[in-house]
Amino acid sequence: MPQMFDSPDKDPRVDPPQLGGEADVLSGYLRYQRTTLELKCSGLTAGQMARRAVAPSTLSLLGLLRHMADVERAWFRPVMAGPDPPPLYWSEEDIDGDFDNLAADEETVRDAWSRWREEVAFAERFVEEAPGMDTVGRDRRRGEVSLRWVLTHMIEEYARHNGHADLLREAVDGTVGE
Predict the structure, then answer these.
(1) Tens of pLDDT along 2-32?
(2) Whether pTM exceeds 0.70
(3) SS (H, E, C) the chain
(4) Closest to 69 in 3D by CA, of 95, 91, 87
(5) What is 3-176's CATH number?
(6) What's the longest Cα–Cα distance across the chain?
């Protein structure tokens, strides 16, 4: 029988509000998805975090964590807030840099956690300080997008990758989610 992360009464995630304003509900769902990724990546060694799914895929939990740091950065910094910092892990020359060239060492894992948490904190501050869900940012490919759209997209992005993370974690140590 598969091992569960925690019993439901010890689950560290907070359910999104069932009532409330749009910002509270969307932020609650995004927080739930972020915590899910954190839960799926917690308590592992650097080698376990860097373990690849199946050849030739470069998918790993460490790669997903780095990818989500770059996704947070891309949507909340250049698109919504305006500053245009370079990506953390990928480049035009290496579009899969967040998954490639991973060192299975503690420093690489600490760096990924630190950068992900920094980008999440920036995004949370931005949402908290935004005048509303109709706040508009500009994406190079899509043009104008609202904060509402970005939050919804981020929920989708995390939900999709959390499915990958669930399978990766089960392959690493047999632990499954709810």
Answers:
(1) 555 556 677 788 889 999 999 999 999 999 9
(2) yes
(3) CCEECCCHHHCCCCCCCCCCCHHHHHHHHHHHHHHHHHHHHCCCCHHHHHCCCCCCCCCCHHHHHHHHHHHHHHHHHHHHHCCCCCCCCCCCCCCCCCCCCCCCCHHHHHHHHHHHHHHHHHHHHHHHHCCCCCCEEEECCCEEEEHHHHHHHHHHHHHHHHHHHHHHHHHHHCEECC
(4) 87
(5) 1.20.120.450
(6) 49
Q: Tokens standing for 134?
A: 């109709």
Q: Tokens representing 55?
A: 């050849």
**Residue entry with tokens 């892990």:** 89
- Give which of 39, 45, 31 is closest to 5, Cα–Cα: 39
Q: What are 100's two structure tokens? A: 């490639």
Total count of residues recorded for the chain: 178
For the chain, what are the domain ranges? Answer: 3-176
Which of 55, 50, 65, 43 is CA-nearest to residue 174? 43
